[in-house]
Amino acid sequence: MASVASIRTALATAMSSISGLRTSATVPDAPRPPQAIVMPDRIDYDLDMVRGADRFYFTIILLVARADDRAAQNNLDAYITGASSIKAAVESDRTLGGVVDTCRVTQMRNYAAVSVGEVLYLGAEFDVEVIA
């Protein structure tokens, strides 16, 4: 059975295939956009009897620089749909290199300004469901 840490790392690795995107399996003290940060959300235990599988939920927080509103939105939009999207990268190998049984990006939400410390970014959150 996969650990939370190994799934976080596998998700970050999958997204590293997106050109120019920094990824992090842990929450950084100071993000360096564009950056995708993997965070555990919750776990549903015992999908199968006798600890056969669990359902993990992760949130990927995507941050882009917000020096110019229009440019920030265009930059963020490029990661939401299409060949360079978070969904396409994560689901290109649904086993995340054999770490999990399957995974899928279920939604994008909270497209908004995000404040981290004293810095304002534009961000979006992606929900990922993992069976392992």
Query: Can you identify the CATH superfamily?
Result: Phage minor tail protein U
Structural class: alpha+beta
**Average pLDDT value?**
95
Question: What is the CATH architecture descriptor?
Answer: 2-Layer Sandwich
The global form is elongated
Please describe the biggest sheet, giving its number of strands, its sense, and whether it closes into a barrel.
Answer: 5 strands, mixed
Our count of helices gives: 3
CATH class term: Alpha Beta
Strand order of the largest sheet: 1-2-3-5-4
CATH fold assignment: Alpha-Beta Plaits
What value does the Rg take, in angstroms? 15 Å
Order of helices and strands: HEEEHHEE
Distance between the termini: 6 Å
Low-confidence stretches: none
In total, the number of domains comes to 1
**What percent of residues are in strands?**
35-45%
Strands, total number: 5
* Helical amount: 10-25%
